[in-house]
Amino acid sequence: MPRGASAKREREYEELKQDFKHEGRYKGREEEVAARIVNKQRRELGETKAAKAKDRAGRSPDRGLAIADYEQLTVPEIAGELDELGRDELRQIRRFEEHHKGRKGVLEAVDRKLKAA
Description:
The chain is an all-alpha fold and 117 residues long. The chain has helices at residues 7-23, 30-44, 49-56, 75-81, 87-99, 104-116. The longest helix has 17 residues, at 7-23. The chain is elongated.
C-alpha cells in the first residue's frame, strides 16, 4: 500500500490479504492482488494524490455540477437527485454523463425529466 492511504483503505488491504491467504487464492501474490484492488478503488473514488491535486487546482471533472460528488454516486442516487434540478442543470448533467461515464440509466432518467419539464 502506498503511503498516505486512509486507515480505511489500509484495513481493507489487510482484510483482503488475509482472506486470500485463508482461502488459498493467489498463492504467493496475495499482497500484490490486494494492493491492486485497493488502489483501483482509490483511483475510482478520487483518493489518489493526482486526483486530490486536480481537485484542489479546480480541474476536477465533476466540479461545478448541480449534484455534489457526482462521480461517486450510483445511478439510483443520481436519479433521486434529478427531481430538484432545472432544465439547464439537467442538460449539464446529460452532457457530462455523455462525455465521461455514459451510463445508460442516468441518460434515460435525465431524458425522462427533460421531457416532463
